[in-house]
Design goal:
Blueprint lengths: L5 H5 L3 E4 L6 E6 L13 H19 L5 E10 L8 E11 L3 E10 L2 E12 L3
Antiparallel strand pairs: 1-2, 2-4, 3-6, 4-5, 5-6
Length: 125
């Protein structure tokens, strides 16, 4: 994706459709600019990535209508080192007329990095 605004500062994030056509995978390579003083990817970067992954999943599920994050909960499971390839994917759990519940995982290979779940509002609904 070629983003504007804030995502352009921390990305770009890459994406591709899953082979089953039902979802997307998002990714970014961990670079020096993403690191905290401890030498691993900053938690804020991982939260921003999770927000983007879950948000884009909701946007697709909502027929590409504008949506906004109402609540995002993240659990950090493992650190990301520079040079690692970070991937994310999400699934919609439930959709109402104006609210979407979603959860996702951020991984490096088979290693879980972040578990996230959230609630999104479909704007104008």
């Amino acid at each position: 994706m070629q983003p504007d605004g804030y995502p352009a500062l921390i990305g770009p994030f890459w994406y591709r459709r899953d082979p089953d056509g039902k979802g997307f995978r998002y990714a970014f390579p961990a670079e020096a600019r993403h690191l905290n003083m401890g030498g691993v990817v900053h938690g804020g970067m991982l939260m921003s990535f999770a927000d983007d992954v879950l948000g884009m999943t909701v946007w697709e599920a909502a027929g590409r209508k504008p949506c906004t994050t109402v609540q995002l909960s993240t659990q950090f499971v493992s650190p990301v080192k520079p040079g690692e390839f970070v991937e994310g994917r999400a699934e919609v759990l439930r959709t109402t007329r104006s609210i979407v519940f979603v959860r996702g995982l951020v991984t490096v290979g088979e290693r879980t990095i972040v578990h996230a779940d959230g609630i999104w509002k479909i704007l104008g609904a």
